Amino acid sequence: MNKHVDTSRLSGWEQPEPALEFVTKHGEEIEEWREIREKVSAIAISNSWTKAEVTRRSGMKEGTFSQWFSGTYLGRLENMTRQMRNWVDAVIEAAAMPMIPISPAFIKTRIAAEITQTLQWAQMTADFVIITVAAGNGKTATCRHYKATHPHVYHATISPHTKTVHGMLVELSAELGLNENNPARLTRAIGAKLERVGGGSLLVIDEAQNLVDDAINQLRHFSDIYQCGIALVGNEEVYSRFVAQSKGRSYAQLKRRVGKHLRRNKPYADDIASYIKAWGVTDADSVRLLTGIGMKGGALGQIDKTMKLASMVALADDREVTVRDIQDAWRNRDVEDLG
């Protein structure tokens, strides 16, 4: 019985004989061109890629690729063939690499539940809340999950480059889907969008410790005028600024405006246990080792990175992760002494 072949994948990847002018011009380069063209075709067919997709991935212009592949290109063939050879080598190298393990899906840990409750409070009451959770405990993942499961939630992340009032407004504008390019109109455009929502909106400002004081005050303005919830999410500095400065810069107004502060500096033991279980680790020695790793700075993030590295090694050998793999992964990461 003949094996069925999905001929639809071959469409467009037939390899015609090159034009006579192409052969005459390029001479000795033709043999390498045929070899690379054959490999490009094989890669494309095996991945069901169109020529447009190959040109996008390889970085060659679509018109140039079409001429190169069909054997009508009369420019510097050597340069084009070299570009496609480098692309073929990169694709083959990537295919030979072990698959990078995927982190567990969102887990509703105890800290995640507390963050969710705080975000719900801010959204339902149009209140101003501060969430300071130590790195690696899933605060950003929880905020993203909350946004994905609740309407009228907007999640903007602040960097040192967007810490000013204008920088923050640009980030909020992008998150709100606005196309306002006039800096003087950004505040009004954001406010108009919040008004159209009709109440019940929430602005989640991640990495809020980067914000300058005036930017935080601008957020208070949004909350007061447009009755939207505001959640400042970040490290301990977010709240300590309110405690340390009781005078000037509207700190008194800001501090009175804070309706709730969620503060967690360490992971819960049951959160660590849940995360280890989500990775499928049950061996007692491995659980004990990962628990110790999770108690270090970075918490669940440390477990995640260590398990990814350990899993890559185990996958390459087609076996389960062992405690030795985890030990080696932690040691090779070289971020802190194991002890």
Which keywords apply here?
3 domains; 9% strand; 56% helix; disordered N terminus; alpha/beta; flat; Rossmann fold
SSE diagram, text form:
Blueprint: H1 20-26, H2 30-47, H3 51-58, H4 62-70, H5 77-96, H6 110-125, E1 128-133, H7 139-149, E2 153-157, H8 165-175, H9 186-197, E3 202-206, H10 213-226, E4 229-234, H11 237-244, H12 251-257, E5 258-264, H13 269-278, H14 284-294, H15 299-316, H16 323-333
Parallel strand pairs: 1-4, 1-5, 2-3, 3-4
What sequence of helices (H) and strands (E) makes up the elements?
Answer: HHHHHHEHEHHEHEHHEHHHH
Mind telling me the C-alpha Rg?
Answer: 28 Å
Structural class by sheet pairing and helices: alpha/beta
CATH homologous group name of the largest domain: P-loop containing nucleotide triphosphate hydrolases
**Residue fraction in strands:** 5-15%
- Helical content stands at 55-70%
Name of the CATH first level of the largest domain: Alpha Beta
**CATH architectural arrangement of the largest domain:** 3-Layer(aba) Sandwich
What number of domains? 3
Number of helices: 16
Spans of at least 5 consecutive residues whose pLDDT stays below 50 are: 1-10
C-alpha termini separation: 63 Å
Describe the structure.
The chain has 339 residues and is an alpha/beta fold. The protein has three domains: 7-96, no CATH class; 110-264, 3-Layer(aba) Sandwich (Rossmann fold); 269-333. The chain has 16 helices and five strands. The chain has a five-stranded parallel β-sheet, sandwiched between helices. Helix 10 links the parallel strand 3 (202-206) and strand 4. Helix 2 (30-47) packs across helix 5 (77-96) and helix 13 (269-278) packs across helix 14 (284-294). The protein is flat. It starts with 19 loop residues before the first helix and ends in a 6-residue tail after the last helix.
